[in-house]
Amino acid sequence: RQSWLTRLRSGLSKTSAGLTGIFVGVKVDDALFEELETALLMSDAGMDATEFLLESLKQKVRIERLSNGAQVREALRELLIELLAPLERSMVLGRAQPLVVMIAGVNGAGKTTSIGKLAKHLQSYGQSVLLAAGDTFRAAAREQLVIWGERNNVTVVEQSGGDPAAVIFDAVNAARARRIDVMMADTAGRLPTQLHLMEELRKVKRVVGKAMDGAPHEVLLVIDANTGQNALTQVKAFDDALGLTGLIVTKLDGTAKGGILAAIARQRPIPVYFIGVGESVDDLQPFSAAEFADALLG
Ligand code: GDP
Question: Which family is this sequence assigned to (predicted)?
């Protein structure tokens, strides 16, 4: 089995395919910058991040008198690392007991999978974990979480067809009573009809705050890297509604749209606590700006 870093690299090679060839033995001229612009846009970095990177790069080329492709590649690598560095932060554990973590994301983003991976990850750090099946609108999501909990010896607080806020409220109390370290609440990614998702999630957040002062301590959004610019739209909408404290970016093990992280760094620099690079439990890894920039450039 390949290491996760190898998978990140080979995954992002779909993104970097447009970038790798560009720098080989070329003159540093307008054609190079144009090719780079196209490649960055193709990677879903978006206009803003692409222009920012290109302008900074041109300036660097001028000031440092860079004269070949390899030097320009290195300069772009440095700029990418600088841009992505603010996203490289980790979730601080032990600030509260329980640390209450609310997890949001549209259906299919990889929310349930990431919760399972994160629970395992936390347990490996000696943290006890309790889960709340807060997506009461989707029976399958609840069942999936319960089955996962049984298999992994993690208590899952649930209630069929109940009110999500009530389930999560109960779970906070259960976690306090049992002196659990981290309580993670799954939430709905889509509602059946008329109800507004953001309203529902805001209500959950409010009720959690009533169950415990200062909670939720973290509000994480799970996004699927493959959705590219659409992921940025989700980040903005959820952040506006809930005030996000962190992101989990999934499916970086096979995306052509890895540039989306540059767009996020420019427009909504919310820490990327973890990245998903596969479907199994150890495929959740901390985000590293340098590793990511290297993988992106192929
Ligand atoms: P949810 O609807 O947001 O709860 O999404 P799920 O957790 O059910 O995930 C949807 C699909 O994406 C499942 O098939 C997962 O196995 C898959 N998935 C989740 N995270 C990753 C990842 O990092 N890489 C890959 N390749 N697949 C993932």
Answer: Belongs to the GTP-binding SRP family. FtsY subfamily.
